């Protein structure tokens, strides 16, 4: 599904080079074809948006899914929204065959930016803390290969965790906006991870497979047996990735960088998130005008 038209329009005004780069971005993996063979499901999105939880749910339902690596049935991971010219571009995913493997459909996860941006600012690592200093810097360096980010020193392996909190919050805000726009470009469907059930994910996968002849055999098994599963993909919030503690506020994001905060708000509302009216967000009307009513683009049916 295409990225939000309003968010892109504002990005073109505030950061035209970023908008051009996004327009020129290539699909991360080949489409299925008779020569390429059976296609895998790809699930991607912004970091700290639920890829670990979805991977675990797929594994619980006996699907051969891999997180941040090539899976026989499904490949899951935030870096896979980007197209790497070489396997080394997708550190640490140095399996050359990964770049040639067809993936279709591509599903995208998103998470409320007030929680995701706060978590990313605390630490872009597996456990969501900056004590893994090397991995935090490597994550920012990887993202910075494909979207422009402030704070160039964040890509230095041992420096990123030494940035001031405000600088890390700005870094996380830019990443959340631009990586979501990149992933939206390829997504056949998108889901709010907070409301996602395995049954909903399976149903959308089955609907796609009914229209295409490229799905993995596992999809047929899921469609036959698991389509009604109401298990929530994200259960109890855990430290780091899915923690609901200490979210950032829209007021704080506006103070960090007003234009990027407004784009984040536009995207979040487009994804189906709702927020109380906030006088601090009055620049929205000034910059982009009144918003027309439109249906949510998310495939998630939750509120």
Fold and architecture overview:
Residues 284-303 are annotated as: Disordered. This is Sulfotransferase. The protein has 303 residues and is an alpha/beta fold. 42% of the residues lie in helices and 8% in strands. Strands 2-3-1-4-5 form a five-stranded parallel β-sheet. α1 (5-14) runs antiparallel to α11 (258-270), α5 (113-122) packs across α7 (165-186) and α8 crosses α9 (217-225). The chain is globular.
* Record field, number of beta strands: 5
Which percent range fits the helix content? 40-55%
Instruction: State the secondary-structure class.
Output: alpha/beta
Adjacency order of strands in the biggest sheet: 2-3-1-4-5
- Apparent shape: globular
Radius of gyration: 18 Å
Overall mean pLDDT stands at: 81
Poorly predicted parts: 236-240, 288-296
Task: Please provide the ordered H/E string of secondary-structure elements.
Answer: HHEHEEHEHHHEHHHHH
Largest sheet: 5 strands, parallel
Distance from first to last alpha carbon: 20 Å
Q: Please indicate the percent range of residues in DSSP E strands (runs of 2 or more).
A: 5-15%
Number of helices: 12
Protein name: Sulfotransferase
Region (Disordered): 284-303
Organism: Prymnesium parvum (Toxic golden alga)
